[in-house]
Fold these 4 entries.
Entry 1:
Amino acid sequence: MFTEHKNGYVASLATRALPLKTVSTQEALAVACAAYRINGSYIKDTRRFSTEENKTQFSNKELVRFFFEDKTDYLPHDYIPFKLTAEDFEKANELQKWMRRYVMLGLADLDEFKRDMISSAAGEQVPINNLGRIAYLPEFVKRDKHETNLTKEIRVEYRNSIHLGTEKDAVEGVCKILDKRYSSQWETYYYTAVLDGNLISFSNRFEHEVDTMKRIKGKVRNHTVNRLFSANETRLNYVKLYKV
């Protein structure tokens, strides 16, 4: 079937852009929670292993996309279908409750990244091309809750933090890990901690859990302020961590 455009040329209706397929936002969020449950965290890229006993670990966004794929011939041979649980839907409801607070505060005050995250799940339906953002929401909300609570803790408990020493001075003592962020680009963890009531930050290629106590040795790199609250923070390098 053909149609004539107002500028005179004729084109097939088949060439017209078809509306994007949409899925239920609540179900998409539940699937995102299921992917997070299956992987134990947010995995950005699919991991395949050389040994058969190690099963392929699909990225969260691919798990979500595959769940809604109608044509099974398009699915990888090593993909294992999964089912949703009642807990997945409960987690999805928690995500929606947390995101509503942003809507009440006004999206205009948020950075572009957060606006995209929340706008993707704002309606009753979500286009399939937004499933990648939906897949990240469980990690986003977990991180956002943590940073909200951490900001309050720093504002109340460590607002009087002072800078330690001067550049290249040795720093040693027992610290408490307050925050960790992993950089896949640099393959290292970035930590915020507190030492004798004063904020410190450093990188380390080993993972250490938040709220654990570690004996630390390092040297002052520079003086800065915390990224969440304007409290004094000392950045360290040449850091070594030990059990207390």
Entry 2:
Amino acid sequence: MKDISDKEFQLIRDYIKAHFGISLGDEKKALVFSRLRTVLLDKGFDNFTQYYEYLIRDKTDGAVIQFIDKITTNHTFFMREVDHFDFFKETVLPYIERTYEREKDLRVWCAGCSSGEEPNTLQMLIQDHFAGKGWDTRILATDISTQMLDKAIQSVYNGESIKDIPEKWRKEYFQKKDGNNFEVSDKIKGQITYRRHNLMDERYQFKRGMHAIFCRNVMIYFDNRTRNQIIEKFYGVTEPGGYLFIGHSESISHTQTQYRYVMPSVYRKI
């Protein structure tokens, strides 16, 4: 099989930018080749032009799902950027409880949930705060990768992965599965709804607005124009007073958003 040509790489780059908002620099050419090589071999394609034609002609979504699963990078871990979780626990949850005491309806969206560490952490914090208070504490977790969603739904992690979480959580919210693997308890998993979602969708359609949105370390793959469009759509589905959390390596232009800056990588809709 031939290496990917500059022209073929440009076709792949344009496709992923148009459909998923992800910008691939020239330095990603080798990565694209290495990640898609096995797909081409399995399908019997001689070059990336044949693969691209297969990708754009497929009507089943199977080729697209496989493509995005191969191309996207998913790296996360429990307690990542822990100051966000501290702020969520100490400021956001008490605010939601005070403001929506009559409704008792918590609405949190984890956009770009990867293999589930972030939504599971959020749900553990929520359980600690709202246990026994009669609230609807189900949260929404979405990702573009079905492969990651499958892992998140299973929520099985090895001992090294959970070593930094509080001992109380390890005892209460995890159970031994096999070997050195631990599974998140149904008490937590049962309160998370996982769904495939593309942030490039024209509209984000939810019945009601979100009190908090976590989209951390996802928009680093988008150019400024795409990032601003996504932020605008987030704003539209955030309840007044609601919060947006982004990654510490990300930023929002104050002139391009109506969110108010709260602290590094935390913004609020006023």
Entry 3:
Amino acid sequence: MLRAVAKHSAELAEKVVKSGALDALVNCLEEFDPSVKEAAAWALAYIGKHSNELAKEVVNVGAVGLLVLCVQEPELTLKRIAATALSEIAKHSEELAQAVVDQGAVPFLAALISHPDSQLKRQVCSCLAQIAKHTVDLAETVVEAEIFPRILNCLKDLDN
């Protein structure tokens, strides 16, 4: 339900945040059930996508480190949405992209460039691009994760 509300606008996402839902969502990322983690990651992605301020709220509540752990989980759908959530956070500013980097996301994302699932590869490439776009240093961090030549192989992928 939180996801359904937060996705529509920054104002609605802010109401979700002001209700105190972020702490509960972060707690859900620590649950054993992957579907609970996935639902929480979706809600956090929708909250973080709207603005720099809302993305900072997601970072400040400690969600990034748990989203990085979700990227490492075996469940494909959880990997996808965790990468999406990290991308939505990183896109806003250098500071937020650095927060994603500081939580160790880049090596795990870079390793997924060669994953056979096209949707996951798209989300991973998007997230790495959102990190790299802000500064030379952040771009170098992405490159240092040994994305080459794997990233170039995506150009040959059968998925357009």
Entry 4:
Amino acid sequence: MSREVVQASKNEVNSSAENRGSRLRNLREIEECLEGKRLYGDEFSGEEVAAWFADEKEATTEIRGPDWQYKYHELNQFHAYEWLPSRRFSNVLSLGGGDGSELLPIMDSLDRVTILESSENLRPAIKAQYVLPEPDGSIPFPDNTFDLITCLSVLHHIPNVSRVVREIYRCASAGGFVLLREPTISMGDWRKPREGLSKHERGIPLHLMRQLIQEVGFKVVSERRFCFAPIMYLNRKLKKNIYGSRLMLRLDSMLCKLPIWNRRYHAERALEKFRPSGVFYVLEK
């Protein structure tokens, strides 16, 4: 056997070993993500982020369909809007705000509204300026621009969450408010297709969200857990908007406050699903 052939064989073996090592490392990383130790997607390369962004661009709009109507007004009012000061907001940014329906209950207090939205197949419900987001997570506005920013169930669709939260902080004005609403559970195994969910969405572990909020410098005005899993199950079974009821929201909030539920991020057994599944933040810069 020639020296060149031997060297080629060695290179092939080394390459194969490197690939196996890379796969094992990726498997370990995914397991750590499913355990809630790290956030899947937050450390992706630029190419991976761009591919994720392309997959999610119209995914939510397509899943919801043309007849979908916004049904979270009471939820937003109970956990967020009631915490805002009684004042006008001159410059408002809605991240991933879709047709703008989420802002309808407080429109009388808003002057100028900008919606940063990836979908281009929406019919606006409010008067607003639409801007397409950048895949890299940057927000195309100067520092201290907005005195109110809403980001309601958007971050779990985004890979580079920490980058986006830092950008939100940068763009918020001093004394400005930020409203965040996110699932804090895995939402199932994202390596497999999940009915009613897009390809990549996954919740953000609560301790990682708390850590990020503290690191960027936000003051926490309110942190409320919501969406107790059995109530969500009942909501789906009855096909009713339970979270449109103030009474059910109070019950849900009371149950979520009990310190007896497990904090497992990725539930694999029925009893592990008895837990709050989301968090609502009112933050101030």
